[in-house]
Design a protein that fits this description.
The protein has 2 domains: 112 residues, Helix Hairpins (Orthogonal Bundle), CATH 1.10.287; 172 residues, Heat Shock Protein 90. The C terminus is likely disordered. It contains 7 helices and 8 strands; from the N terminus they run H-H-E-H-E-E-H-E-H-E-H-H-E-E-E. Helices cover 53% and strands 17% of the residues. Strands 2, 4, 5, 6, 7 and 8 form a 6-stranded mixed sheet that branches. The protein has a two-stranded antiparallel ribbon with strand order 1-3. Helix 4 runs antiparallel to helix 7. The longest helix is centred in the first third of the chain and has 77 residues. Bound molecules: adenosine-5'-triphosphate and magnesium ion (MG). Adenosine-5'-triphosphate binds next to helix 4 and helix 7.
């Protein structure tokens, strides 16, 4: 009898320890989630301030460029074909046009463009983008599309998604100067209630996951940490504005999704985009996601 009592007491003790450990773990997860949300809020406030500043400058600068470009056009048209001043005038025009492209990108970033989400068949979108992707990647990079059958429809701004994928492809190309392979894969994914504490930025529900992987030079920890910062670039001269990844992250976050990046130096890079679906008629997910947090953006 006393053995039975001892056994029951031991069991109760074990149970209460287990409950304590569970409560403790839950508490820690909640604290981590809260800290993460606070960091995100600070980041959003910083971005909003930067956006306002950038927008103001880009807008005024654009007006000045319009005057410069207009006059450079008049000048080069008015010059004789063989005039020694013709080339400088054309260079001026070219530089002005590049400046205009840059200010357009800045304005796009500052505006936090209004999104027009719609039901999107991501597989069809990727197939339609194939030729523009191949052209942007150049001959040295092979493109592979791995499209999941019965992929759920995403609910997202199609034009923005296309430009996000193009941004990722161009980054991948730049990371593979000697050539390599770019894979774009789609799958259905779900974030469950349990997975939520690890990915507080995502609401439980179904997502279309797009994984863009390259066989390029990869990133150091330092680069990966700054990856989503506006104007962060490792590219020299006027090769990069450092706005690509911050625009991708801002757009995906605004769409209710999530970006996770996995990369090691010389090991290539994988960018996971989670794009939300409208749940009702989404098919069963291929996989339940429990860990989407590594090196994340949103
Ligand atoms: N696939 C990748 N492989 C290796 N490094 C990458 C990759 N994608 C991004 N990076 C690094 O992150 C930096 C920031 O990328 P981001 O796209 O924001 O700007 P950028 O490519 O430098 O310029 P922009 O896109 O504005 O022309 C890059 O300069 C590069 O160092
Ligand atoms: Mg880029």
């Amino acid at each position: 009898m006393s053995h039975l009592v001892t056994a029951i007491l031991a069991l109760l003790a074990m149970l209460s320890t287990w409950q304590w450990v569970r409560a403790h773990r839950r508490h820690r997860q909640l604290a981590e989630a809260q800290a993460h949300l606070e960091r995100q809020l600070q980041e959003a406030q910083k971005l909003a301030a930067l956006g306002r500043l950038t927008g103001g400058i880009a807008h005024d600068f654009n007006n000045l460029l319009t005057v410069i470009i207009g006059n450079a056009e008049l000048l080069s048209e008015g010059l004789e074909r063989h005039s020694p001043l013709r080339q400088p005038a054309e260079l001026m025009l070219h530089a002005g046009e590049r400046g205009r492209e840059l200010t357009q990108r800045l304005l796009g970033f500052a505006r936090r463009q209004t999104l027009a989400p719609e039901r999107v068949d991501v597989n069809a979108l990727l197939k339609a983008c194939r030729s523009i992707l191949t052209t942007s990647l150049g001959e040295a990079v092979d493109l592979e599309l791995h499209l999941a059958p019965s992929l759920a429809q995403a609910y997202v701004d199609a034009a923005q998604l296309e430009s996000a994928i193009l941004n990722l492809a161009v980054n991948a190309r730049d990371a593979m100067p000697d050539g390599g392979r770019l894979q774009v894969a789609t799958s259905n994914a779900a974030v469950s209630e349990e997975g939520l504490s690890r990915a507080p930025q995502l609401r439980p529900g179904r997502y279309v996951r797009i994984v863009v992987s390259d066989t390029g030079q990869g990133m150091s920890d330092a680069v990966r940490r700054q990856l989503f910062e506006p104007f962060f670039t490792t590219k020299e001269g006027d090769k990069g504005t450092g706005l690509g990844m911050s625009m991708v992250a801002t757009f995906i976050r605004q769409s209710g999704g999530h970006v996770a990046v996995f990369s090691e130096p010389r090991e290539g890079t994988r960018v996971h985009l989670y794009v939300p679906c409208r749940a009702p008629e989404a098919p069963e997910p291929d996989e339940t996601v429990t860990d989407v947090t590594a090196r994340d953006a949103s």
